C-alpha cells in the first residue's frame, strides 16, 4: 500500500487534482496539507476528512517525512495560479533533495493530462464536499472530467 501526502493550496484542490489518488484502493492518504489557513479551516469542517490528519503546509518540515511517503504537489510548470506554482516550487525543491514527489495538474494543456475514470463520481464527490462551490465547476468540465500526474526524474 502506498502512503501519500497531498499538498492542496486551496480547499477543493485535493479533489480537483487528486481524486483518482484519493479513491485508489492501493493508496492510503496519510495527510492532506492546505496552503492557507482559510483552506484548512474550511476542510476541518468536512466530515470525510476526520480520519486523515491535516495541517498547514507552511508548518511542515517535509524533510523529516519518511522516504516511503509519496508527496503530491501542484505542478510548478503547468499550473497557472500563483499559489499553486509557489507550492509546486516547494515540491521541486524536495524532489531535488531525493524525496518521492508526484506533481498533479488539472490544466488541460499539461501533456500528461487524462480523462478521469469515473467523472460522475468525482463530480458527485465535489458537490457533496463543497456544495457552496458548485457554480465553479457547473460550466467547466475540466474540474471533474480531467486530471493528471507526472513524476519528474532529476539527474545531476
List the uncertain runs.
none
The total strand number stands at 7
* Radius of gyration, CA atoms, in whole angstroms: 15 Å
Counted by DSSP, the helix tally is 6
Query: Major sheet, described briefly?
Result: 7 strands, mixed
Helix content: 25-40%
Structural class: alpha/beta
When the domains are counted, the total is 1
Percent in strands: 25-35%
List keywords for this structure.
156 residues; alpha/beta; Rossmann fold; 7-stranded mixed β-sheet; 7 strands; 26% strand; globular
Structural commentary:
- The protein is an alpha/beta fold and 156 residues long.
- The protein has one domain: Rossmann fold, CATH 3.40.50.
- It has helices at 13-22, 37-44, 82-96, 119-129, 134-138, 142-145; strands spanning 2-8, 27-34, 53-56, 69-74, 100-105, 113-115, 146-151.
- Strands 3-2-1-4-5-7-6 form a 7-stranded mixed β-sheet.
- Strand 1, helix 1 (13-22) and strand 2 form a beta-alpha-beta unit.
- The protein is globular and about 40 Å long.
- The chain starts with a strand and ends in a 5-residue tail after the last strand.
- The model has no long low-confidence stretch (mean pLDDT 88).
Amino acid at each position: 500500500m502506498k502512503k501519500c501526502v497531498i499538498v492542496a493550496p486551496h480547499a477543493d484542490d485535493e479533489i480537483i487534482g487528486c481524486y483518482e489518488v484519493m479513491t485508489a484502493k492501493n493508496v492510503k492518504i496519510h495527510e492532506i496539507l492546505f496552503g492557507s489557513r482559510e483552506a484548512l479551516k474550511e476542510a476541518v469542517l468536512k466530515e470525510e476528512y476526520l480520519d486523515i490528519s491535516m495541517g498547514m503546509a507552511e508548518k511542515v518540515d517535509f524533510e523529516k517525512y519518511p522516504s516511503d511517503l509519496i508527496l503530491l504537489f501542484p505542478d510548478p510548470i503547468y499550473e497557472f495560479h500563483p499559489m499553486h506554482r509557489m507550492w509546486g516550487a516547494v515540491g521541486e525543491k524536495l524532489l531535488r533533495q531525493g524525496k518521492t514527489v508526484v506533481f498533479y495538474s488539472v490544466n488541460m494543456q499539461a501533456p500528461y493530462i487524462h480523462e478521469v475514470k469515473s467523472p460522475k463520481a468525482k463530480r458527485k464527490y465535489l458537490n457533496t464536499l463543497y456544495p457552496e462551490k458548485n457554480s465553479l465547476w457547473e460550466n467547466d468540465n475540466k474540474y471533474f472530467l480531467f486530471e493528471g500526474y507526472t513524476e519528474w526524474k532529476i539527474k545531476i
